[in-house]
Write a structure and sequence with these properties.
With 527 residues, the protein is α+β, with helices and mostly antiparallel strands. The chain has 12 helices and 32 strands. The longest helix is centred in the middle third of the chain and has 16 residues. The structure holds guanosine-5',3'-tetraphosphate.
Length: 527
């Protein structure tokens, strides 16, 4: 692909993730997106809880048994001329690092909030990672077809709890049974849930005074006049619309609607593809050097490795976010870490209900590479003459720890193999006690342990004993400052996978006590 075509193709890419608390409506809104893009014909295809059918995002058996989505999946669809790459984040209350890392591969996030509940814990955690990256965040206040909380309260809570400015792009006229529609400032129109004229005129323009002209029944309702007043108030007292602040992730545009009935979803998506950024330049480890998406040499990084997605083919797939250039089936790339040349064959792209071979993909797209052990999380691949390395993906400080050992000492080998593989995939973090070298695994969510145990048994035939150590506060210390005598039962000294010393503190009290005793020692966290 020449540079001109590449530029056009990249400008049409929108790569994003949906963040939300479980049950806020992420799956339902994904379905609407797939419906509008023509990728599916019927709702209920993504997660057919009732029919017992599972879409490809529920790959692992453990997920099917529990009816949850543990691993993140990727879908590419065409929406209104845009190539949308939607990276799924697990819809479970339990976190995994996988969820966080997924957010490293996207250019924007859509935050779905249940208007009956407001900001919930998981949304807050995911939001913080988006904030740290400075990516734009679009808010969809969902479930307006039900009676929920006052829109003003919801927006105020959003601003307060998440410490971000909000700008309402539209305003609901009523809710629940009395949901008349949206008073849409951005598009200068009213969108009706129940069109009055011959059933097809659901958009009515606003005049200069911001009102709908003509005789309509809904105008007689106090709900309409109230919405007008609130809209006025928002315009006068609220934040200004500021495209740059949106792009920097400092202002979130807020949309109201109902994913279930599909009302307001298209209005939201249309604005989203307009405002959400196309792929942009990414920094490399070389100071001051960045890679532009329109550079013709291919570069990309691996943000996720997933083994055995399909039990019939015992495969392992490395997910690559393409940062620049064009991918073509059969091309040779180099892995920066190992300097090894690899031919990319049999590359996969993920659709709503199938996988298909990719022949071409460009910056912004996400492709899956069949992996036979060549890749690690955070690896850079490139085709140019000069080696490129993107910064390592952030590691997240685990909060939960378990001691782990193989049940059958005769099966040490498969235990070690499985452990090495799962650590390489980033499924779990591995530590050892400083002196006795006992294995300790760390996670940010309980479910990571269950998946670890399940996979060791099912994929490596290794049964393990796990003994919970509970919540710990992990703090790193430099070798120079370390004195092994500092270790006690309240701050167990361990080493991480690179051999760096780390203390596992019992609680914040223990951290404070330690800092009081050794005021000159620096303790560090990951993210
Ligand atoms: P999630 O992926 O964020 O976990 O949420 P999901 O879309 O699965 O939605 C959770 C529940 O909320 C589902 O109901 C879904 O139908 C409902 N829901 C989603 N959006 C809306 C909305 O706009 N209005 C209303 N009233 N409900 C909505 P469920 O009964 O738990 O699941 P199901 O058995 O219907 O699949």
């Amino acid at each position: 692909m020449n540079r001109m075509n590449l530029k056009q193709a990249v400008a049409k890419r929108r790569t994003f993730a949906i963040i939300s608390h479980p049950d806020a409506g992420k799956t339902t809104i994904t379905e609407q997106l797939l419906l509008y893009s023509g990728a599916i014909r019927q709702a209920g295809t993504v997660k057919g809880k009732k029919s017992g059918k599972f879409a490809k995002s529920d790959w692992m058996k453990i997920e099917q048994q529990r009816g949850i989505s543990v691993t993140s999946s990727v879908m590419q669809v065409d929406y209104d001329g845009y190539q949308i790459n939607l990276v799924d984040t697990p819809g479970h209350e339990d976190f995994s690092e996988d969820t966080y890392r997924t957010l490293m591969a996207v250019d924007a996030a859509v935050m779905v909030i249940d208007s009956g509940k407001g900001i919930e814990p998981q949304t807050k955690k995911l939001f913080q990672v988006c904030r740290m990256r400075g990516i734009p965040i679009f808010t969809f206040m969902n479930k307006l077809d039900r009676d929920g909380r006052e829109p003003m309260d919801l927006v105020a809570e959003l601003e307060e709890v998440l410490a971000i400015d909000a700008y309402a792009m539209n305003w609901p006229m009523g809710m629940g049974k009395q949901f008349l529609g949206l008073y849409d400032f951005y598009n200068n129109r009213v969108e009706l849930t129940h069109p009055e004229e011959n059933g097809d005129n659901d958009f009515l323009p606003l005049n200069e005074a911001g009102e709908v002209e003509g005789d309509y029944k809904f105008k007689e309702s106090s709900i309409y006049t109230e919405a007008l007043e609130n809209a006025e108030l928002m315009r006068e007292a609220g934040n200004d619309f500021d495209k740059e602040a949106i792009a920097a992730g400092e202002l979130t545009p807020v949309f109201f609607g109902s994913a279930l009935t599909g009302f307001g979803v298209q209005t939201f998506l249309d604005a989203f593809v307009d405002f959400a950024p196309a792929p942009s330049a990414v920094d490399t480890v070389d100071e001051g050097e960045e890679v532009e998406p329109t550079d013709t040499e291919l570069t990309g990084f691996i943000f996720k490795i997933q083994a055995n997605m399909d039990p019939r083919h015992r495969d392992r797939i490395a997910f690559v976010r393409i940062v620049s250039g064009t991918f073509e089936e059969g091309m040779d790339v180099k892995v920066t870490r190992t300097d090894k040349k690899i031919k990319l064959n049999n590359t996969t792209r993920f659709m709503a209900d199938s996988r298909e071979n990719v022949e071409k993909a460009v910056a912004g797209d996400i492709i899956g590479l069949y992996d036979t052990g060549n890749f690690q999380i955070g690896d850079t691949i490139y085709t140019g003459k000069k080696a490129v390395a993107f910064p390592p993906l952030p590691q997240f400080t685990p909060e939960l720890f378990m001691k782990v050992s193989p049940k059958n000492v005769m099966k040490q080998k498969s235990f070690h193999k499985g452990m090495q593989q799962l650590v390489q995939e980033g499924a779990i973090q591995l530590y050892r006690t400083w002196h006795s070298e006992e294995y300790i695994i760390g996670a940010v969510g309980q479910l990571q342990f269950e998946v670890f145990q399940y996979r060791l048994l099912n994929e490596y035939n290794s049964e393990v004993d796990m003994s919970p150590m509970g919540n710990k506060i992990a703090r790193w210390i430099s070798e120079e400052e370390l004195d092994p005598k500092m270790s006690s039962s309240r701050n167990l000294l361990c080493k991480d996978i690179h051999g760096n010393p780390v203390f596992l503190f019992e609680n914040t009290f223990a951290v404070n006590w330690f800092q009081g005793k050794y005021p000159d020692v620096h303790l560090e966290t990951l993210l």
